[in-house]
Amino acid sequence: ASVVNKIAAGEIIIAPVNALKEMMENSIDAGSTNIDILIKDGGLKILQITDNGSGIDKKDLPILCERFTTSKLSAYEDLNSLKTYGFRGEALASISHIARVTVTTKTKDDPCAWKVSYADGKMIGEPKPTAGKDGTAILVEDLFFNVQSRLRALRSPSDEYAKVLDCVGRYAIHSKNVGFSCKKFGDSQYSLNVGVDSTTQERIRTVFGGNVASNILEFNTHKLEEYGLEAAIGQVSNLNFNNKKHIPPIFFINNRLVTCDPLRRSLNQIYSLYLPKGNKSFIYLGLMIRPDLVDVNVHPTKREVRFLHETEITEYISTKLQDTLSDIDT
Ligand code: ADP
Ligand code: MG
Description:
By secondary structure, the chain is of the alpha+beta class.
């Protein structure tokens, strides 16, 4: 890979979880109702994602991993939404500069699947016909094989796996009508398995355990044509989830996992006033908002967002939260 391309890729993909997040979003964008993930060595050796979405047309395969090639422009035409999804057509390109990528894909109109590999943004040879179901499987091998500094900076494979699993869990909670599974290579058991028909509560229970899901309150609100909010909040006693001390808030904006510090801070403030000692917060928010009302501080790995109606939405959730928590208190 050229040095420039490698550096650019290394800024977008700093750990296996970043690559996985991009690929899960692609699978969801492709209308998948099932996403299976297989991981070896924390995603450094193998990171594989198999979906049952639209598949990729054979004619699009030659440029699949070229930078700035995307099939998604129409939906996101204005500048702000371009910022929101700041890296149009860069994810697969980036990954192909720092890993070996093999794609197997089949559209419903194609009688067979096509398999092809990529390196440094380019297709290697020609796609080969193969057996396969409708959908796309992307196999990423030897991530960072050519970026030794990045490899050295990473934590252990088990830490990287924990990050992957956490990210899959968050998408599984948010993405209704999509089933998810995640497992380690060689394991017969899934680390996570969420059925396509699961409700939000069931998804939360599967991901975080019954202890979390037993106290959840769901609610939603919307402002016509501007935003729609779905939320689930609760408190957790005796949190014993992968030795975690707390569950960071899960916040999706327009189906992308993001962070929003002001919102997180005000909710934490309320929790700290009302939550019985030792109990922890659980917050899931899914916000759909008109793309031009969202602004993203464009660092791709942080995804910190600002949005219009932030105060209004924060206040709404805060009030709900306060009501719930003070009810529990008395
Ligand atoms: P972007 O998602 O911004 O368009 P990506 O580099 O993530 O850019 O993906 C490039 C293109 O590859 C997408 O626009 C899409 O057409 C295609 N693609 C990637 N993954 C999948 C998938 N799982 N199913 C169908 N198409 C996909
Ligand atoms: Mg993408």
